[in-house]
Amino acid sequence: MTSGSVEAIAAALSADGLIVRGGFNFTAGDASPIGLSGALAKSALLVGQAGAAPWPHFLRWREKQPQAVANPLDTWSRQVIGAVADAFGARAVSPSDKPYLPFQQWAMRAEGLKPSPLGILMHPRYGLWHAYRGALLFEDELPIEVPQAAIHLCDACVGKPCMKACPVDAYSAEGFAYQSCLAHVRGATGEPCRSGGCLDRNACPYGTAYRYPAEVQAFHMASFAPMVG
C-alpha cells in the first residue's frame, strides 16, 4: 500500500464525515487479527470521527431505513466502512464485533493518546469529543511511522472538573459506577443528562469546539440507558 492509497481512503471516508485516525503495522509479538483472505493482517488503519461531522450523513441514511433497525449508528458505520474496505481490498472490523478486538489499545498505538479520568482517550485537539467507528485491516504494511506520544491535557488539568459534575459521582478513582449512572439517567432526576449528555464529559474544558450537539449526546445517552417500563 502506498501513501497515495491512504490518502484515497481518507478521501473516500470523508464523503460520510469520517476520518482516518492513524494506523500502525503489526509486529512479530502482536496477536494479529485475520485479514481479508484469511492470512494474518500486517497493518491497521483506525477509522473514526472528530466532533459530530458524521451526524448529518447518518441522519440521511436513517431516514431511509426501517424504524426498528437495531443499533443504527453501528449499522451505518459498518456499511460505510465496509464499502470503503471493499473498494481498497481490506477487511473492515468494528468495536462491537465479537470476540472483541482491542480497539482502545489500537487507538492509543495509532495516535499516541492516553485515557482521561473518564476512560475516553484524551485528544490534544478534540478533547473528549471524538470516537472510533471501526478499522481497516490490510495484509501488507502501511507506509507510516510510529506516532509520537501526544500531549496529555489531563496532566495539566489541576481542578479535574470532569470528576466533579456528576450528581451521583459515577466516576471516581475506583472506576465507573455503571449501575449508579444508569439508575440516575433513567430516574426522575435524570435531566439534563438524558437530553444534554454526561455532565462530567461536558465539564471538560478541552476540545469544546468539537463538543457534540445536544441531540447527538441525547442519542448516545438513549443508547446507553434506554428507558424501560
Describe this structure in words.
- This protein has 229 residues and is an alpha+beta fold.
- The chain folds into two domains: 3-152, no CATH class; 157-224, no CATH class.
- Helices cover 33% and strands 15% of the residues.
- It contains eight helices and eight strands.
- The protein has helices at residues 3-14, 55-63, 72-88, 103-111, 178-186, 193-196, 199-203, 214-224, and strands at residues 19-25, 43-50, 91-93, 114-115, 121-122, 130-138, 171-172, 175-176.
- It has a four-stranded antiparallel beta sheet, with helices on both faces.
- α1 runs antiparallel to α3.
- The longest helix has 17 residues, at 72-88.
- The protein is globular.
Q: How many structural domains in the coordinates? A: 2
Strand order of the largest sheet: 1-2-6-3
Work out the radius of gyration. Answer: 18 Å
The profile of the biggest β sheet is: 4 strands, antiparallel
Describe the global form: globular
Order of helices and strands: HEEHHEHEEEEEHHHH
Low-confidence stretches: none
Mean pLDDT: 94
Helix content: 25-40%
**Span between termini:** 52 Å
- Which structural class do you get from the secondary structure elements? alpha+beta
Q: In what range is the share of β-strand residues?
A: 15-25%
Helices, by number, come to 8
Let me know the number of strands.
Answer: 8
Helices and strands in order:
Blueprint lengths: L2 H12 L4 E7 L17 E8 L4 H9 L8 H17 L2 E3 L9 H9 L2 E2 L5 E2 L7 E9 L32 E2 L2 E2 L1 H9 L6 H4 L2 H5 L10 H11 L5
Antiparallel strand pairs: 1-2, 2-6, 3-6, 4-5, 7-8
Helix pairs in contact: 1-3
